[in-house]
Amino acid sequence: MMTLCTTAKCLAFYIMESGSEEDATCAVAQEDIVSAMLKVPKGTRDYAPAETRIRQEVIDIAVQHYKRHGAVTFDTPVFEMRSLLQKEDQYGEETKLIYNLEDQGGEEYSLRYDLTVPLARYVGMNKLGEFKRYHVAKVYRRDQPAMARGRYREFYQCDYDYVGQSGLMIADSECMKIIDDIFLELDLGEFVNKVNHKVLLNGMLEVCQIPSDKFKTVCSSIDKLDKQPWVEVRDELVNVKNIHENAVDALHGFLTLRAENPKMSNDQVLDTIFARSAGNANVEKGISELRTLLEYCTAYGISERICIEPSLARGLDYYTGVIFEMVITKSSFENAAPNAEESQVKKGKADKKAAKEDSNVGSVAAGGRYDGLVKSISKFDAPCVGFSLGIERIYRLVQRRNEARGLKVRDTDTDVYVAVSGRKEFKDLFLQRMTICTQLWKADIKTEYAYKAKPKLLNQLQYCEQNGIATMIIIGEDEVARGVVKLRDVASRAEEEIPISDVVVKVLERLGRQ
Amino acid sequence: MMTLCTTAKCLAFYIMESGSEEDATCAVAQEDIVSAMLKVPKGTRDYAPAETRIRQEVIDIAVQHYKRHGAVTFDTPVFEMRSLLQKEDQYGEETKLIYNLEDQGGEEYSLRYDLTVPLARYVGMNKLGEFKRYHVAKVYRRDQPAMARGRYREFYQCDYDYVGQSGLMIADSECMKIIDDIFLELDLGEFVNKVNHKVLLNGMLEVCQIPSDKFKTVCSSIDKLDKQPWVEVRDELVNVKNIHENAVDALHGFLTLRAENPKMSNDQVLDTIFARSAGNANVEKGISELRTLLEYCTAYGISERICIEPSLARGLDYYTGVIFEMVITKSSFENAAPNAEESQVKKGKADKKAAKEDSNVGSVAAGGRYDGLVKSISKFDAPCVGFSLGIERIYRLVQRRNEARGLKVRDTDTDVYVAVSGRKEFKDLFLQRMTICTQLWKADIKTEYAYKAKPKLLNQLQYCEQNGIATMIIIGEDEVARGVVKLRDVASRAEEEIPISDVVVKVLERLGRQ
Fold first, then answer.
1. What ipTM score was computed for the predicted complex, to two decimals?
2. For this UniProt entry, what's an example GO CC term (chains A, B) (predicted)?
3. Closest residue, chain A, to B76 (C-alpha)
4. Is there a contact between B49 and A72 if contact means CB atoms under 8 Å apart?
């Protein structure tokens, strides 16, 4: 029986078994219910103010670059028609990770799995072509969460895509340029953009005499190579997916080309693949397009961080051309000299932990060309190329970099604190504080004051120190009577008396805004 | 039987009845499926780029004010434990509007209904007090959508709340100040903040001898007064909710006090209620607190837009103190002189339409004090006061104001377009365009160029005109050979030849950034 607890202060409801109406049962039941309510869903998390700020800074950097290239943004609902998201050939095996809404009103909806299919739906519905768009929003995947590695069930994506016709590799190379600029500005360390081409990949599979109806499943195995050793992937290919041993071993030769020759230039890698492919048309097409891409990357000044990687095989089915994946190869903070003493003490331990976690971070951005997607869900056709930033992973790297450098992120940007001081019997001076705050706010100066009637001056000082507020305006009854206030520098504790009428001007001066 | 279509280009799946495998069936089935996928869920909508920009500008204004007062932000998941959201005494009758997720993995979740309960959950979980926070995020209500009036099933909220102890009416009056500043800056017209107090309201119900166990249901009827005439509400109270006629008529005297005396001052309204209440303790307490609030509103310089309204009764159950609702009383664009000629032509018609829709807009912000909420879901106690902006409604007003004033919102902020020109046989000059763009991007100049190999100059000019891009850099084979480019002012069509090496400096000059 569902009933309300009869204890006066208990507002929680609980399931009461008949005959067990003692308070004890209620307390236990209430505790259970409270703890059941007082958590977040599995695989999700809250972000505290400082964490939210760091994440927002990452997003702001990305958006600034997207806008610099003329991208627009638009907004789509967080849930879409279930028939759209669960369509075959869309997310492949990952379809099972989609969250469905309860069918409460006749139509079936699901939470978006990425921002790409909603983009394609929007383009198909509105028959749009020829535009760049960015989209920052949360997506949902009912995957096994790995919180320590930044893998959540709810996470932000921060996508850039170009929809429309483009000269060969023109839009694709601009994607490379944007992503390169973003990671240079993020200052997370050395990075490399691994690049491959779906047509080249298919060509190599043909050369190895792998049957074309096995391409998708073979690519899905190849995609595991950054998490599993070759022996395991080989075993899966031969014994689970029934690919002939000779074909698998021939494939191995292509896949390890880059790993076994880390110093080979991109051109040499392409030359080597070409030499082994006996004129296969897809290999030739893929190589020719990648050479064009490399030429443009040189014009953009980013070619030294582009790495042709024949083993790259993105998991999703919808890619049709260039595919790429950005990885951090050496973090900027592993050897960074921390500023703050406290972090120097922790340095040794933190470094090892960071280094260990780094190797697990995986790709921080990924994308590619997907020319068939819009056509597959509408009667409109528009080629697309784009990428997605792994905001949660980047956020974790920025957070660790800040830690390593002893940087503290403030929760707010408050400039000034209007404090009150005086003897025990002093008045609350609320009206005076409000009047001064009103003037400061009017001048766009971020200002706070204590909500208590008679706060201790020490508490107000501590609040400023804890929150990094550099300036205090202190008023007391005597000062008010004389038409003055004290202006205090929180760090040095130096004070000067100024006329109340000068408060705004003096604070703007201190902020370098006048 | 679920099967894939056998037509080569058809990637959609459909339900195929045995024996009807003709292409015709497939085409029909596919068309149905495509149209079923190519829409957004009921009550939701996409926002196009210009719309997204306007909405973002509204949000930016609000957030700027929240930060000015020292508010932090944090982020919570879009879905919460179902037991939290569906708790009794939380959303009252509106609980049925909550979207549930399918139980796919053992735990039951629901989409958030507002940002207030997630805030209370966060505060209770982390035992936090004494902070101001803002939160901009989407919330979900399975209500009957009224798209024309800006009521959707998915919509943004933009909340400000203070959590923690505060001197009487101190945090409450700062809420009033913030909301007033935001609407002054939004420039939507004249507005008024209607204010009431839950304790005063309860006191008036006591004075009318309405039984206390009927308070909630009576308030729920009163809440309908801005949509329904008094005769209907009276009928509901007397005949459905069984309140004595004398009590209802006495109540009517309180509720119409403001409407019947629009010129009465706030103090006079409170005096009149006091005089009619025969020393009722709750009335006295409510009036005393509201007088303090009015005093602080005067110090903040906002009292002329505060209106004590005894008939205001917010629907949600969790309010315990001051409640308020901001309404636009006269829009700024009804009599606005439009700048652009074209909108002058449409003026008469647009004005009538706008005026008509305006009366339906309803409240644009609302909030109040809710001291019991955190305690009701956790073992932690923290009083709270805050409000929520009706972003969708405000957005619609801004959009109509811009229309009335002939303002056009650009989709992007692109500064420069790098164009190419030449004879039929001219080269694509992609590498040269990329090099120039790279320099401009590096100087944080928003730059685009055509993705076509040999675009017509006229098309490139039109693109600039359509997208409000003021400056073109035009290159051709001859110019490249001579190390120069043309700098063109799109509006005046004036051109000058400048050295390639001067491009960045000249553009920065034009942008007033050097």
1. 0.85
2. mitochondrion
3. A46
4. yes
Name the one residue in this structure whose structure tokens are 């009957």. Answer: B144
| Selected residue of B7, B9, B37, B430 to mutate for chain A interface (largest A Cβ count, 10 A) | B37
User: With an 8 Å Cβ cutoff, is A453 touching chain B?
Assistant: yes
- The CA–CA distances, whole Å, from B413 to A72, A74, A185, A224, B452 equal 9, 15, 21, 41, 22
Residue B447 to chain A, least CA–CA distance (Å)? 6
Helix, strand, or coil here: A118? helix
Whether chain B has a CB inside 8 Å of the CB on A184: the answer is no
Contact B256, B170 (CB under 8 A): no
Residues 6+ apart with CB under 8 A from B244: B209, B238
Q: According to the annotation, is A115 in a ligand binding site? A: yes
φ, ψ dihedrals at A41, nearest 5°: -55, 150
Q: What angle do CA A472, A476, A478 make, to 5 degrees?
A: 135
* Structural contact between residues B511 and B415, judged by C-beta atoms closer than 8 angstroms: yes
Write out pLDDT tens, residues A473-512.
999 999 999 999 999 999 999 999 999 999 999 999 999 9
Residue B140 Cα distances to B60, B137, B162, B319, angstroms: 22, 10, 23, 21
Specify whether the CB–CB gap between B332 and B354 falls below 8 A: no
Question: Which H, E and C letters describe A481-504, residue by residue?
Answer: HHCEEEEEECCCCCEEEEEHHHHH
- CA-to-CA distance for A443 and B436, rounded, in angstroms? 41
Q: How far is CA A151 from CA A142, A391, B224, B362, in A?
A: 11, 11, 46, 42
B430 pLDDT higher than 60? yes
Helix A198-207 with A215-222: angle, nearest 10 deg: 110
Which neighbouring-strand residues pair with A474?
A419, A486
For chain B, what's the residue count? 514
- Whole-angstrom Cα distance, residue B287 to residue B269? 10
CA–CA distance, B471 with B492 (Å, rounded to integer): 10
| Contact: A13, B46; criterion CB under 8 Å | no
